[in-house]
Amino acid sequence: MENKKAIVIGGGVSGLSAAIGLKNRGFDVTVLEKNPRAGGVIATVSKDGFKAESGTNSVMIQSRKTLDFIDSLGLKDRIAYSKPVQKKRYFARYGKIRAVPTGPFAFLFTRLFTFCGKIRMLMEPWVEKEDPESDPSVSEFACHRLGRDGLDYALNPLMAGIYGGSTDKLSIRHAFPPFWNLVQKYGSIIGGAMKSMKEKKAAGNIFKPMVISFKDGMGELISTMEERLKGDIKYNAKIISIDMAENGWNVEWGNKIEDSADIYDALVIAVPSTELNTLPLPGTLSAMLAPLKRIEYAPVATYTLGFRREDVGHKLDGFGVLIPEKENMHILGSLFQSTIFDNRAPEGCVTLTNYVGGMRSPKLARLGAEEQEKLIMEDLRKLLGVKGEPVFKQRFFWEHAIAQYNVGYQEFLDLMDNVEAEFPSLALVGSYRNGVGVSSCIENGLAAAAKISARV
Ligand SMILES: Cc1cc2nc3c(=O)[nH]c(=O)nc-3n(C[C@H](O)[C@H](O)[C@H](O)COP(=O)(O)OP(=O)(O)OC[C@H]3O[C@@H](n4cnc5c(N)ncnc54)[C@H](O)[C@@H]3O)c2cc1C
User: Fold this and answer.
1) What CATH number labels 5-36+235-295+405-455?
2) Ligand 1 nearest-atom number relative to CA 398
3) What is the pTM assigned to this prediction?
4) Mind listing the pLDDT tens digit for each residue in 351-379?
5) Strand order of the sheet with strand 5-9?
6) What is the mean pLDDT of residues 291-310?
7) Which CATH number fits domain 46-86+297-403: 3.60.10.10, 3.40.50.2000, 3.90.660.20, 3.90.1300.10?
């Protein structure tokens, strides 16, 4: 019997994961990627002993699933584990960087929060629980539970770090479900976190989250996935038509090397939601997907700068620093790349990966390199005591960097479920659905492969 055939449109980490999942289930897979390279927003540039990530700095592993997948790619020995010092995180306040407190003693003495702010935060367990049917913004939720200081100096920088997002727009239940779920289950973030930890310990169910990358950077994950799909990925592919066939999908595409028109049992669409309306989809499907255009994306520029160690005053003893909006700086944050992982800078040098723009200041993301560098350097001199000029520079710009899970996002989730119910041989995957992090993209891609293979 012939293998079933699947076509995956989009070769970012979501599409590649779905393709590998389908291949592992015995499908003949074709991946159509419009660019000459796969990986989407993930890539690593190595130059003069420095490594710069195009954006995605690392993978936060929170369950065995992603780790098992990485193992299955043969990458176990290529994992770069983050150094223990990265557990220390910094946020800025009063123009200075302050360690984020990790215990009760540190919380009492931190200058990250005011005295009144701390008292307000400690009252959180007694604050009324949110209506489970409601969909508050991160700002509403944080102000209600933690007070203004908790919003401005905890949730605001955190959301800048994950989404480059606006706390007034992001939905807490969708953008940061851990806090929402703790409140819904236990009535409080603080009390809930302690109870949930106790329960997990009692059940022997503790997976220690870890932050990883790969020895050659995040690009190594992509090149290994490409290798696994060797011959199956069609680069520079232009899709001419996608039509419904009797038992699947009739897809016509071409690139400089080949043209093809074939019937596929399964179709996986793995492009960002902003690209859906550019695909030549059948009219009914296109109309159903049209509202997804309203999902916003934050524009972000990633500017990695390398310095001689002696030119940076700060110890760089942590993961990096995130900047609350109230601080009126230019960057969203700066990651201490060469502290987190080995081999990110040559001997005697350090790298700082700086993020600019987001929903907070989209115009800054779109500035030219020279202007942007000036603003970044202004912040770095103030925050980290940078004295000299950079000896390495690498910039990337993403107009549609990170999908925003804003208030009302449930409408889009329901729509995607309805579309897949209507078209059982179709799956929609991508960072605009069920998590923007790399591990979510991998797990969602694999889950889509399992679901669709059971249906066709
Ligand atoms: C600046 C930045 C920093 C980040 N940092 C982290 C981090 O540290 N940790 C983390 O876990 N996550 C991070 N993320 C998020 C994570 O990297 C992304 O959510 C994830 O990589 C998105 O993968 P994707 O496959 O869904 O989409 P994309 O990477 O956007 O891939 C989509 C692919 O589809 C292709 N495509 C588009 N249109 C077509 C078409 N018409 N035909 C064919 N192909 C098409 C594109 O060329 C692209 O290759 C970051 C993201 C950014 C932008």
Assistant:
1) 3.50.50.60
2) 53
3) 0.96
4) 999 999 999 999 999 999 999 999 999 99
5) 233-234, 28-32, 5-9, 266-269, 426-428
6) 98
7) 3.90.660.20
